[in-house]
Design a protein that fits this description.
Organism: Coptis chinensis
Enzyme class: oxidoreductase
Number of strands: 14
CATH class of one domain: Alpha Beta
Strand order of the largest sheet: 1-2-4-5-6-7-8-9
Helix content: 40-55%
Low-confidence stretches: 1-69, 412-427
EC number: 1.3.1.88
Shape: globular
GO molecular function: flavin adenine dinucleotide binding; tRNA dihydrouridine synthase activity
Strand content: 5-15%
CATH topology of one domain: TIM Barrel
CATH architecture of one domain: Alpha-Beta Barrel
Number of helices: 19
Structural class: alpha/beta
Radius of gyration: 22 Å
Family: Belongs to the Dus family. Dus1 subfamily.
Length: 427
């Protein structure tokens, strides 16, 4: 069975006992930015004693000026109601071009990720090319909460593309942070920081017309006050959740430039909507430190997840094992185990082979350093097969290669058999 472009609506989690506004919000999932209709009068009476109906009766539009207190307050409340309905996920797979596709998202979810972004989708190409839509955007009923990310510079094109996915995700996200040359040539991503009126129009177009909220992912300006003004402009335009990468547009090398958590902390303090942090998330100690130091509502990890999809379950690669602290091998879990699980997910949820090839190199990079001849055999293959990739793992095993993942005794160690000690996910 081909699972490409197979969509299912997410099920309401009955364990989430929200307050009156949250409950009312769940009754109107197609009216995130609109007022209730008369057909729900009986349901409105359920919450009639909360004094929230006066807010719900106000017309909502992100085009209202910030001085329209009632509309702004209701917009903020609904932004939080939606986030709470999703369970307020803290551990999130960041958007990665060609790398955060469905099988990889599902692998990360198995090992502790609580939400995920799709790879960045080009809004115009996505809208114009049905074949690309079928190959680049796949999901399934377990793939929630889900952010679908687009790059764009035209509000009308972005809106039409977003309408194709809004029923199959929890946020439509605008990429305002890509710093690569291709983004400069295409005039999108972080290069829209030079044209804030266009950014505002992109956000407003989605906020005014979609049935799901809009989120944005940004980089910071060199000047902190410019960053705060930028973030507040996005909030005023209708952004319901903001992810902040704590590096500037020119700081492309994550290993050379540390993300500025203080800048993220300042953005969080300046906004009223949920804020996520991105940058310097290499293992669970970083996750916990970032949450504590910045006060954000969740963290994103990107590159470190490619080498260690079990990061959010408390595992770490040998590079990050503190020699002064006792590390334990987590029930003999290693990257080859994770690769086999990933390949099985790819057989179930087909994706382009270029994505699979990339994950093989990322997961087995350290193994290939020991046996470069195996990597050379992989590189010689113009066409890959699952049989060949499974055989690579078998060959490495037979050569006696094993590079384990480690878990600190104070963290959760999750293996294919389940958690091996107390979960780290409790806050």
């Amino acid at each position: 069975m081909n699972f490409s472009l197979t969509f299912f609506l997410t099920k309401q989690n009955p364990s989430h006992k929200l307050h009156s506004l949250n409950f009312l919000f769940t009754l109107f999932p197609k009216s995130f930015m609109t007022t209730p209709t008369s057909e729900h009068e009986d349901d409105e009476c359920i919450c009639s004693d909360t004094n929230d109906l006066s807010l719900l009766e106000q017309p909502l539009s992100s085009k209202n000026s910030p001085s329209c207190t009632l509309s702004k307050d209701l917009y903020i409340e609904r932004a939080w109601a939606h986030w709470k309905k999703l369970g307020q996920p803290k551990f999130i797979v960041a958007p990665m071009v060609d790398n955060s596709e469905l099988p990889f998202r599902m692998l990360c979810r198995k090992y502790g990720a609580q939400a995920a972004y799709t790879p960045m989708l080009h809004s115009r190409l996505f809208l114009e090319n049905e074949k690309q839509r079928n190959m680049e955007f796949t999901t399934c009923k377990e793939d929630r909460p889900l952010f679908v990310q687009f790059c764009a510079n035209d509000p009308d094109i972005l809106l039409e593309a977003a309408k194709l996915v809004e029923q199959h995700c929890d946020y439509v996200d605008i990429n305002l942070g890509c710093p690569q040359r291709i983004a400069r040539r295409g005039n999108y991503g972080a290069f829209l920081m030079d044209n804030l009126p266009v950014v505002r129009s992109l956000v407003q177009s989605l906020a005014d017309n979609l049935h799901v909220p809009v989120s944005c992912k940004i980089r910071i300006f060199p000047d902190m006050q410019d960053t705060i003004k930028y973030a507040r402009m996005l909030e005023d335009a209708g952004c319901s959740l903001l992810a902040v990468h704590g590096r500037t547009r020119d700081e492309k090398d994550g290993k050379k430039f540390r993300a500025d958590w203080n800048a993220i902390k300042d953005v969080k303090a300046a906004l009223r909507i949920p804020v996520l942090a991105n940058g310097n998330i290499r293992h669970m100690d970083d996750v916990l430190s970032c949450l504590e130091e910045t006060g954000v509502d969740g963290v994103l990890s990107a590159e470190p997840l490619l080498e260690n999809p079990a990061l959010f379950a408390g595992f770490r690669t040998a590079e990050w094992v503190d020699k002064e602290e006792e590390g334990i091998e987590g029930d003999l879990l290693d990257q080859a185990d994770l690769l086999v699980e990933y390949l099985k997910l790819c057989e179930r949820y087909p994706v382009p082979w270029r994505m699979i090839r990339c994950h093989v190199h990322k997961l087995l990079g350290d193994w290939f350093k020991i046996h470069p001849e195996v990597r050379e055999d992989l590189n010689k293959q113009s066409k890959l097969t699952f049989e060949f990739l499974y055989d690579i793992v078998k060959r490495l095993r037979e050569l006696g290669t094993r590079i384990p993942l480690y878990a600190k005794s104070s963290h959760a160690a999750f293996s294919p058999k389940g958690f091996t000690n107390q979960a780290v996910h409790e806050f």
